[in-house]
Amino acid sequence: MAGLAAVIPSAFRSWAYMPSPSRLPTRRAHGPFQVNARLEASEKKRRKQTVYEEDVYNIDTGPELSTKEIIALAGVQVPKRLVQQLEKEKKKGKTVVQKEAVLVRKTHKLLRVIAGKASGKKLLSIADASVRPMMEVVRGAVFDILQARLHGIRKLSAGGSWLDLYSGTGSVGIEALSRGCSSAHFVEMDPWIATNVLKANIENTDFSELSVVHVMKTESFLQQAPRPGREPFDFISVTPPYEAVDYNILMGQLSTSYVLGKETFVVVEYPSEVEIIEGCGPLVKILNRRYGRTHLAIYGPEWAAKS
What we know:
This protein has helices at residues 2-7, 10-16, 32-56, 67-74, 80-103, 136-150, 171-178, 191-204, 218-222, 247-255, 302-306; strands spanning 107-112, 122-126, 161-165, 183-188, 211-215, 235-238, 265-271, 279-280, 283-291, 294-300.
């Protein structure tokens, strides 16, 4: 045996008598087998998580990952305070983007002033269903009818105050100013439209000094108490979104408001399926005309109905 030991190299003898890994102690502070086992287990766990995430998450249609999930996938350690700060900034940035997306609204310049000082000037309008301006053919008919009813008594071009309710683009009130009215009040509840469309149209037609814009609901405006020295308006146009109002309630509010006088003319645009009331406070219905789906009712003093 001693002769055989002399023939076999010492390194080979050490390997041959080394115990198998299964016979080693299960816990060793710095043993190579324990370290390798931990690395292998960690690698298996990481691979399992990666496969799972790839299966359930699609970058195009999958759910949005939170900051914590992104850090976990990256396999790095980040202080808790930094994670909270990142989450806070992410939410803040998302809110800003959502607000900006809401404010992106398209406009066009398909409307124009028909006659008067600002004849032919283009007017801005919203390119969606939130604003439905009076058609040019209807607007032209309104002023032709009013002028015909006022003929021989007083002229529209001689002045007068106009109240444009649900004004939107302001096309009716601006048309009135262009044709000779001395002042116009515009009531529009949407702040963005009031600033970017209505006021822009008033400035573009050079009627800023003759105009007052009220950014509020029409119902709230009609319920206001009259200010000292505030007289009823000579003309009132009512062009609401068809589905947004109850016309009987609206006409009742208008009938009891200070804005209406015994000599006021009221122009109401409404859809054909609505039954409009016959009278409006002290006023009587002068006429009722139809333009496609749109109906036009004009109220005024009794003498105007006979003229």
